[in-house]
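TODO from last week: model Peptidase.
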Amino acid sequence: MSPVSKPYEIVERALELSRADGCVVIADEESSANLRWAGNTLTTNGVTRGRTLTVIATVDGAEGTASGVVSRSAVTAGDLEPLVRAAEAAARAAGPAEDAQPLVTGVPSSPDFTDAPAETSSAVFADFAPALGEAFARARAGGRELYGFANHELTSTYLGTSTGLRLRHDQPTGTLELNAKSPDRSRSAWAGRSTRDFKDVDPAALDAELAVRLGWAERRIELPAGRYETLLPPTAVADLLIYQLWSSAARDAVEGRTVFSRPGGGTRIGETLSPLPLTLRSDPYEPGLESAPFVIAHASGDEESVFDNGLPVGPVEWMRAGALDRLITTRHTAGLTGLPVAPGAGNLILDGGGERSLEEMVASTERGLLLTCLWYIREVDPATLLLTGLTRDGVYLVENGEVVGEVNNFRFNESPVDLLSRATEAGRTERTLPREWSDWFTRAAMPALRVPDFNMSSVSKGV
């Protein structure tokens, strides 16, 4: 077999080599293209290719089924048998897997399973790059400097199992982050976008937005720590609610370890989390935010199980009309908790707000803070989901419907669950890039939120 075997052939051959009771093979064919720039000048660009193969072997025993997982990059045909044997050895050396379930069956094969992987290239920037060059010229003429990067990844995942599944998913992921700075570096503003193909990203519009924010920052106002009415833009809302989703494993809640645990036992499913009629949901078929419609699990944990690979993923409402409706379950944890199976999906959407834009929400603000984004978010208390983090790249004071200047940055201490209960207004839902989690989670659509008493716990000296 050629060392440049097609991905589906690699999957089929690994399954043929398996001597285990069950086997799952995942081939991830990855390609990426990127641009970077600094000081209004393009600095680097590049294209990469890669392959990662994951073999999951399951071995039945008197006490239960064990699993072994081994992953390798740059795998060729000659690497297959040692990789399969290593997974089998790992399974035999392991104890019974707590999450063991029969491997998934009965899912129709993907019609393009034997097709070549999709690939990205520098051509994805064919329209974006010239527009970026024009934005550099405008920024230079306006006395500001642009820094940032654009990255596009395309991963074709081929999943095959000893139970007959043959599934394939192509996932494009594009991110753009743009910083504008004053020449003395004392003022900074940020904007980011998530995209599938860079055809819907306008560098000129982003530069114009950042120019306005740098203008606001020409007046500096010092404010102390405290609770302020605060407008959280969609990117900040996304960062907070993604962490909330990551913290919503059903088993942890049932065992009394999370904010979704009911005092005295059980979960808070059915409880009202927000007085606003907000629905937090995931849907692999959401237009513009499409993600894998089946489970792709390279490892097991409370939120996913290697035994669930290939399990269909459908739309799910985590919060419906303000009330908690679902928690993340694998087949195993659904059995433990008595809750419906609800695997996580690769996107997150918050619906049910109003139709007002962030600008319109600013215009109706008597006095409050307007944030740009959040940064360095960390968990303080899982029982309440208290998080801490920093503001960054622009916090602005709004008075009588107008931005009157930039204030200092803050450290905040807030729980997204508490924020939902105190929010008094949600704006129009729009696609956004979660800045803090953009290395792991890019597909989100959120409204801006108005929180009357956001806790800015201390002053931060960051820009």
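Done. The domain at 7-213 is CATH 3.30.2290.10 (PmbA/TldD fold).
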